[in-house]
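Predict the 3D structure for this chain.
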Amino acid sequence: MIGKHVLRALARLAGPVAVVAAVAATVAASAGAAPPAVTAIPTIQGNSEVPFVGDTLTATNGTWTGSPTRYAYQWDRCNALGDRVNCRAIAGATRQSYTVQDADAGRTLRVRVTATNADGSTTKDSKGSGIVSTKTAPKVYARPQVTGSPSVGSTLTTTSGTWAGATSFTYQWQQCDAGGNNCANITGATGKSYGVRSDDVGHELRAVVTATNRYGSTKAPSNFTPAVTATPSTTIVTTTVAGNKAPSVRFLSLKVRRNRVYARFRICDDSFGRVKVIERDSKARRLAYTRRFAYRPAPCGTYARSWSLIRRFRTRGRFVVTLRAVDPAGRLSRLAGRSVFIR
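Done. Predicted structure below.
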C-alpha cells in the first residue's frame, strides 16, 4: 500500500494523474504476486520402477507457474504397499539425486520438491517408486490375483502381483483338485489369460507367476478359483423359473481385527428363495478353507458376517476372501473377492 505522505508528495509533484497511475501500478503488482503453483508434478528418473540398492535416482523439478528462482529436495521412505503410505524423511537426503541404500530395501521412495520465488514457497511430491530390492532374486509382496468366472467358455485373467526386483514375468496355469491340492500344469496355458475348458469341470484353477531378474527367479501362486462348472445347458434352463436370472453378490467391506474376519456384502436374487453362499478363505502357500451359509434376500439384502481367522492364515501376507451365491435352481453368481494385508 502507498502511504499518505507518498501520495501527498506525488500530488505536489505531478498532480492527480500521477497519483492514479502510481496506485494502478501498485495494484497490478500486488495482483501478480503469488508463490509458485505446480502444473506438472516432479518425477523420479532412473530405475524408479524396479529400484535396487546402489542405484542412483534423480528428481525432476516438475513444471511451475510463478517463475521459481530455486528448488529444494527431500527424499522419503514409504510403505511397500499403497501409494505413498507412512512416508518418513530420509536424514540428509536433500539433493536432487539420491543413491538407494540398504535401509530402503522393502520400502518405496518418493521425492518432495519445494519451489520458491520472491512471494513464497510451495512443495509437491512425486509418485512413489517401485519396491526397493537388494541384489537378490525377486520377492513377492502381494501375490497374483485371478479374476473371471470359472465356467466352461469363460476367460480367467491373472495379475502379476506386486514384487520387489522383478524385471520380467512368465505365467503357467494349473489345474488342481476340488480341495486345491494335486496341482498340475496345463499344457500350453502360459499367458496372462486362460480360456476355461470342459476338461476343467470339477477342478479348481490357479496361475503361477514366475518373476525374474539378473539374480534369479521366484514363483508365486495366485488364489484358487472355485471348482469349474459346465456351461448352462438346455436341460438346466428347462428346470429354472421362466426369466430367472443368476443371483449376484457384491462385497461391501472386509476387515481383519485380532484374528477375526468381518465381512459385509449384498446379495440379490429374483427367485425370492433360499440362496446358498460359498465363502472361501485363501492365502499364498496355504490350503484354502471353505464355509457355506444361506440367506433369503427379497429380492436383495445386505448382510454382515464374522468368523475366526484359522491359525494357518495368521501370518503376514495377503489374505483373500471370495464369495459365490447359488440360487434354488442352481444358478451361480459371479465370483466376488476382496483382500486385506495381514501384518
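Residues 16-32 form the longest helix (17 residues).
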